[in-house]
Design brief:
4 domains, N-terminal domain of TfIIb, 747 residues, single chain, alpha/beta, binds molybdenum atom, binds iron/sulfur cluster, binds ligand MGD
Length: 747
């Protein structure tokens, strides 16, 4: 007999690889290949293949925990939820709503991210909500919004990559961070295109490159400006495109011309001939792309750095043309959708601005509250965590493990410990959950249904494949119960599809418009790209939902307002489709919008339809090496561990492949220190010290060391990192800080 297969998507990264799940003998699931999903066509990395392991009740949380006499002990759901409600209510009463904080995650489904943002604003009435995506792609988002009027990581599907003529990958090690995506770059080369990789390390990705540039960490801004200088000097700009489709060129050109190649070589360490080779390879083909990831983005000037790469694409006429343009490789499972629906400090669903009166009116209408009751923007992720125990006294945390992943982590751990009350919803007892007063064990991926939006902007349906263990409830249930305890009986449905139906209405007319997307379509069409407006305005409300929203009551008194019946004007036109007209047709049933795989082909999402240059200039990292701290530390990932490791450190096969932290360093640096392979190296920064074994390799610059950040304890890389923030995106400088090295113990 055939085993029933559930087609779904991986719980981990933003590629959201398709996979099939079948119930396994003795519980859990068997993961198998799912070839009908185009992004990975069946291929999975080791994390995806082993993702079923974490369903085992022996590895995950199966009952709520509360702290008694300093120790976490099992309790009932009623008791756990009562305590969370009490903790939050007490803080709210004693210190006001803004003393309650909420911290979310880019791994949460769209439904959860939406409900969490609504919970913060409507139930807690707090402005203090942000999420770990701030540590991820916020710099690229800020630069993309500025230049294009819209932030969708990739404005084209991955399948366009092999059809390009040249791709520059800036600070992405996708051979380790999204292994199945490497295929697109292999195909690019097979088709005669070229690959340039920019990384201080000769990574597995860099090994695939036709040209590898290895700049000093934190100097990508100078590098991009130097390339633009050469583009101008060599007369390789696309003047017609600049005239027709952009604004702000003159100032930007002038700024770039101050960055002479020789000056750029001095800053970056990349020889001028390599800069010239890169310009030639990028400019000669008729189509070319720049894709950035965390390398250039996780810097205290990440936004300007991404702007400089966008400038290069605009000056050469690349963006908004077939198989060309700028894209950001988003990281977390729902890194894209998680940044669109309101768990960000400054944001309402549909990628709306919290400060925009029309946006407030629209969303308040859907929520059935007074627009004036919605708080304003709050603190960014690091600033929020930094204010714990002082400004913020109680925190509800869902989908992040900042004890391991936040910069200056020892300080953040202290801040978490100084809270009056901490509640953590998680699948496992993460290092952060271990500090909580109440731990809520929630359902994960294969145990529930929900949508995610992958790095291409493709909205996907993740389906439930197994029944969760008895003691476990969903994040949506948690929010529903907490809202009810605060007197908000309606508006927080437990059913994911009901939340999605409301999200459709809340996003309607916004930038990230999901109103034309339904669960049915997602199942039938294998994903739909946003924006996807409903063809005849707002979607039909389901009966259940209209009751939900109409009856929404609020602690501070019932504030009723009819939901907006008019969709807002789109501020841009999705490109033309080869489907029938999208004009409303009052005689025939409206034709569904096909979704928008490719953006900007006709115009950009700015008011005038033009892309905006940004006249950025170089500035150094926040903490340059000096006599006391002479070496640069950069941080990142290895293929077998995911993020803070809360999930993957529990999987045997992955631990065998990547058992612990290490310090990667060049033989010349090792020789200066007198360190041998495997020797314990103490790495000291102004924030603290960490110890890990030496891994000696010529694949890294001699002035730089690299540590992965997946582990807690003495090898925690984030004990060292610098929380210097980008002024626009508030992204911390994970990718460069000054350290000194000592040999701790001979191995
Ligand atoms: N195995 C695995 N896969 C993952 C994840 C994981 O934790 N583990 N996390 C997911 C998430 S959330 C994300 S955000 C993505 C991240 O995906 P990537 O961005 O590919 O990952 P990182 O390793 O953080 O950084 C990429 C590269 O940047 C380089 N780099 C360091 N400093 C600089 C610099 O100053 N300039 C440049 N140009 N490069 C620099 C590093 O050497 C590294 O090779 O991966 C996703 N996939
Ligand atoms: N030094 C350094 N630090 C970094 C980075 C770096 O490159 N260098 N990268 C940064 C980046 S890009 C990122 S994205 C962050 C990520 O760092 P974190 O925010 O810590 O990410 P995760 O480890 O994925 O944590 C997710 C937690 O949520 C839990 N979880 C999973 N699914 C669910 C769910 O559905 N509901 C709930 N309630 N919980 C769930 C997991 O078990 C885990 O404990 O780290 C950042 N930190
Ligand atoms: S590449 Fe990402 S989405 Fe694909 S299997 Fe690996 S972790 Fe999962
Ligand atoms: Mo990330």
């Amino acid at each position: 007999m055939d085993t029933p297969l559930t087609p779904t998507h991986c719980p981990y990264c933003a590629l959201q690889c398709g996979m099939n799940l079948a119930p396994a003998d003795g519980g859990g699931v068997t993961v198998s290949e799912r070839v009908d999903f185009p992004v990975n066509r069946g291929a999975l990395c080791g994390k995806g293949r082993t993702s079923g392991a974490l369903l085992s009740p022996s590895l995950r949380l199966t009952e709520p925990l509360v702290r008694r006499d300093g120790i976490l002990v099992p309790t009932s759901w009623e008791d756990a939820l009562d305590r969370v409600a009490e903790g939050l209510t007490r803080t709210r009463t004693e210190h006001g709503p803004d003393a309650c904080g909420v911290f979310g995650g880019g791994g949460l489904t769209n439904e959860k991210a939406y409900a969490l943002g609504k919970f913060a604003r409507v139930v807690l009435g707090t402005s203090q909500i942000d999420y770990n995506g701030r540590f991820c792609m916020s710099s690229a988002a800020a630069a993309g919004n500025k230049a294009f009027g819209l932030d969708r990581g990739l404005p084209f599907p991955m399948e366009d990559i092999p059809k390009s003529g040249c791709v520059i990958l800036v600070g992405s090690n996708l051979a380790e961070t999204m292994p199945p995506a490497l295929r697109y770059f292999t195909e690019l080369k097979e088709n005669g295109g070229t690959l340039i990789v920019i990384d201080p390390r000769r990574t597995r990705t860099a090994e695939q490159a036709d040209l590898h540039l290895a700049p000093r960490p934190g100097t990508d801004l100078a590098l991009a400006l130097g390339l633009l200088h050469l583009v101008v000097a060599q007369g390789r700009t696309d003047e017609e495109y600049i005239r027709e489709r952009t604004s702000g060129w003159e100032e930007t050109r002038a700024a770039a011309m101050a960055h002479w190649p020789e000056y750029v070589e001095r800053i970056t360490g990349v020889p001028v001939p390599q800069l010239r080779d890169a310009v030639r390879m990028f400019c000669e083909p008729s189509a070319a792309m720049v894709l950035t990831a965390r390398g250039p983005e996780q810097q205290s000037k990440g936004t300007d750095t991404v702007s400089a790469w966008i400038n290069l694409c605009l000056a050469t006429g690349r963006s908004g043309r077939p198989y060309s343009g700028y894209g950001c490789l988003t990281g977390q499972g729902n890194g894209q959708g998680g940044r669109e629906h309101g768990q960000k400090a400054d944001q309402l669903p549909g990628y709306r601005k919290l400060t925009d009166p029309d946006a407030r009116r629209h969303v308040a209408g859907v929520w059935g509250v007074d627009p004036d009751s919605l708080p304003g923007p709050g603190l960014s992720a690091y600033e929020l965590l930094d204010s714990l125990g002082t400004g913020i006294r109680s925190l509800l945390l869902m989908g992040s493990n900042p004890v391991v992943s936040a910069p200056r982590a020892a300080h953040i751990q202290q801040r978490l410990e100084s809270l009056d009350f901490l509640a953590v919803a998680d699948v496992v007892l993460s290092e952060t959950a271990a500090l909580a007063d109440v731990v809520l064990p929630v359902t994960q991926w294969a145990e529930e249904t929900g949508t995610t939006t992958n790095l291409e902007g493709r909205v996907l349906l993740r389906r439930q494949a197994v029944t969760p263990p008895d003691g476990v409830r969903s994040d949506l249930y948690v929010l529903h119960q907490l809202a009810a305890r605060a007197g908000v009986e309606k508006g927080f449905p437990v059913e994911p599809e009901a939340v999605f139906e409301e999200l459709r209405r809340a996003s309607a007319g916004g930038i990230a418009d999901y109103s034309g997307i339904t669960y049915r379509r997602l199942a039938d069409e294998n994903g739909v790209f946003w924006p996807c407006p409903a063809p005849d305005g707002l979607p039909q409300e389901s009966d259940a939902l209209s009751q939900e929203s109409d009856a929404l009551s609020h602690e501070s008194g019932r504030l009723s307002q009819e939901p907006d019946s008019q969709p807002q004007e789109h501020n841009f036109q999705p490109q033309k489709h080869n489907r029938p007209s999208q004009e409303p047709n009052f005689h025939a049933p409206a034709v569904p919008h096909p979704g928008s795989p490719r953006l900007f082909l006709e115009r950009f999402a700015t008011e005038d339809g033009r892309a905006r240059f940004a006249p950025v200039t170089y500035r150094p990292i926040a903490e340059e090496p000096d006599a006391e701290y002479p070496v640069l530390l950069t941080t990142g990932r290895v293929v077998a561990q995911y993020q803070s490791g809360a999930q993957t450190r529990r999987v045997d096969e992955l631990n065998a492949a990547a058992p612990g932290p290490f310090v990667e360093l060049h033989p010349r640096l090792a020789a200066r220190l007198g360190a041998g392979e495997g020797d314990a190296i103490t790495v000291v920064s102004r924030r603290g010290r960490a110890v890990a074994p030496a891994r000696i390799t010529t694949a890294i610059r001699p002035d730089t060391v690299f540590m992965p950040f997946h582990w807690p304890g003495e090898g925690r890389a984030n004990t060292l990192t610098n929380p210097a923030l980008d002024p626009t995106s508030r992204m911390p400088e994970f990718k460069a800080c000054a350290v000194r090295l000592e040999v701790a113990v001979r191995g």
